[in-house]
Amino acid sequence: MLLRSGFDYRYESLEKYFVGARERLNPSGKLLLGTGSYASLSDVERLAKKYGYAMRLSDKIDIPLTDGITVKNDYRIYELMDVR
């Protein structure tokens, strides 16, 4: 259950997000999407394009996975704009 809350292996939840958001967004509205370096950004971009969104990196920060470990994960916030 914990893994499902943080990882969307087949990006099924992301697809539902894209589909459902279109019903709720104002005409000039934007989606925000938070993700990390462990996501397949090419798959995320492919899905965004499939549903008519363009992605723009809004912010990125490197944070260690846990205290005392030098391995970092970058966390990113993307804005997605409707381009249909």
Q: Keywords, please?
A:
3-stranded antiparallel beta sheet, Rossmann fold, single chain, alpha+beta, 84 residues, elongated
Q: Determine and state the CATH class.
A: Alpha Beta
Order of helices and strands: HHEHEE
| C-alpha Rg (nearest Å) | 14 Å
Q: Give the low-pLDDT segments.
A: none
Question: What is the global morphology?
Answer: elongated
Q: What number of structural domains do the residues give? A: 1
Biggest sheet character: 3 strands, antiparallel
Number of helices, counting only DSSP H or I runs of 4 residues or more = 3
User: Termini separation (Å)?
Assistant: 36 Å
| Rounded average pLDDT | 85
β-sheet strand percentage? 35-45%
Task: Please write out the topology.
Elements: H1 2-6, H2 12-24, E1 30-36, H3 41-50, E2 53-64, E3 72-82
